[in-house]
Design a protein that fits this description.
about 425 residues, about 35% helix, TIM Barrel, globular, 8-stranded parallel β-barrel, binds (3S,4R)-3-hydroxy-2-oxopiperidin-4-yl beta-D-xylopyranoside, 2 domains
């Protein structure tokens, strides 16, 4: 704690947060990488100039993060403002920046009910008010996804294929525990439910190596109907043979909202579907900025999220939705850096989680977390009709591929057994 105060008070230590670090410190991303994890950030390209590597903002981005997301520049209205006219300028700059700095890129997002070009839907994606037929809309979706994913093939490593397709009211799961309800949108209304399936298939055909995600909000904590509906939809897609790799939990949260056990219970059960589960848009608003311990409480919740993700091989990524507190879509200073680009306690909370984990890995063993999804040991995970966990997960183990063969390492005891 004292160290954090020092960092905040002393400009020299503040500069260290940009990872031109001295003594025992390394950049956030280095410790994440050592832990087998990725830590990402969404960048508002219209405010942060990604063609200038010398700016404090860009330095903080490439020094601390190893995943980059365009906050708006890869949405449909940005990429295809007029039919057949694609604008890749800003997206390309962002991808070039990421490649210069050894970062991977998450593409956000191929199909959404917002920020959709006016020629598709006059109200930005909710109504099919140009009265396209199902076939025409499928053609539009296919064209957009195929062109964009092909353009970025091999350079954008994963895509949020379908964003926020669930309705907010999921009371349907109370009577039908495997159901889910979709929100009205130009895609759902005009095409039907299989717009989701089709979007994944189009993306997969364009780049079979890209990891493909569903993404949504309000699906973080187990016990809520929407969380259950999200699981149901992911399972339905997976069982239908749709090329889905994982689910994104946006995590636009407010301090006080996070329930560590419910978050953990929700996250862990995606492993049994063979899906990764990642945090895609974390920001943590502070409801009362005047409170004495406001930033410490915020830091504690960032820490809780990272502590849950770091335990699970099927949770490789944590992405923060923005760089600094004066450039965010939300109130309540929800990010890791303040307006002066000083690292906040929340930054150091994440830093400590990855550092501690990385430093406690057994010597000479690289974590395989990011690739190990298919190798997870089976575990029992049973839920009642309300989506509550009624059976505990088996003790957690991680599998490592060592030169001499396969070893199983018990994380608690850090012992290696054959
Ligand atoms: C937000 C951006 O941060 C804003 O700049 C923009 O004005 C609106 O969209 N869920 C998502 C993101 O999936 O795309 C949204 O991003 C935030 C909510």
């Amino acid at each position: 704690m004292k160290k954090h105060l020092l960092y905040l008070l002393c400009p020299l230590f503040i500069a260290a947060a940009n990872a031109q670090e001295s003594a025992d410190t390394q950049a956030l991303r280095d410790y994440a990488e050592k832990s087998g994890k990725k830590i990402g950030v969404a960048v508002p390209v219209w405010r942060i100039d990604v063609t200038n590597d010398g700016l404090p903002e860009t330095q903080a981005v490439y020094n601390n993060f190893n995943i980059l997301v365009a906050e708006n520049e890869m949405k449909i209205d940005a990429l295809q403002p007029n039919r057949g006219q694609f604008e890749f300028y800003h997206g390309d700059n962002l991808v070039n920046f990421a490649e210069r700095h050894g970062m991977t890129v998450r593409g956000h997002t191929l199909c959404w009910h917002k920020q959709v070009s006016g020629w598709i839907s006059s109200d930005g994606g909710q109504k099919n008010d140009h009265n396209y037929s199902r076939e025409e809309l499928l053609e539009i979706l296919k064209d957009h996804i195929t062109t964009v994913v092909t353009h970025y093939k091999g350079r954008v490593h994963e895509w949020d294929v379908v964003n926020e397709c669930l309705a907010d009211d999921q009371s349907i799961v109370r009577t039908n525990p495997t159901a889910y309800a979709l929100r009205p949108s130009v895609w759902y209304t005009g095409i039907g439910e299989d717009f989701i399936d089709s979007a994944f298939v189009y993306a997969h055909r364009a780049d079979p190596d890209a990891k493909l995600y569903l993404n949504d909000y309000g699906v973080e904590m187990q016990g809520s109907a929407k969380t259950q509906a999200y699981y149901n939809l992911a399972r339905r897609l997976q069982k239908s043979g749709i090329p889905i790799d994982g689910v994104g939990l946006q995590c636009h949260l407010t301090v006080g909202e996070l329930d560590s056990a419910k978050f953990d219970n929700n996250v862990k059960r995606y492993a049994s579907l063979g899906l990764t589960c990642i945090v895609t848009e974390l920001d943590m608003s502070i409801p009362d900025l005047g409170a004495a311990d406001a930033y410490e409480k915020q830091a504690a919740e960032y820490r809780t999220i990272a502590n849950v993700l770091i335990k699970y091989d099927h949770c490789p990524n944590l992405v923060i939705w923005g760089v600094k507190d004066d450039q965010t879509w939300r109130r309540g200073e929800p990010l890791l850096f303040n307006a002066a680009m000083q690292a906040k306690p929340a930054f150091y909370a994440l830093y400590d989680v990855y550092k501690e984990y990385a430093e406690n890995l057994p010597a000479g063993i690289e974590s395989t977390a990011a690739d190990a999804v298919g190798e997870l040991p089976p575990f029992v995970d049973v839920y009642d009709l309300m989506g509550r966990s009624v059976a505990r997960q088996m003790p957690r183990e991680r599998i490592y591929d060592l030169p001499a063969g396969l070893y199983i390492i018990d994380q608690k005891k850090m012992a290696i057994t054959h």
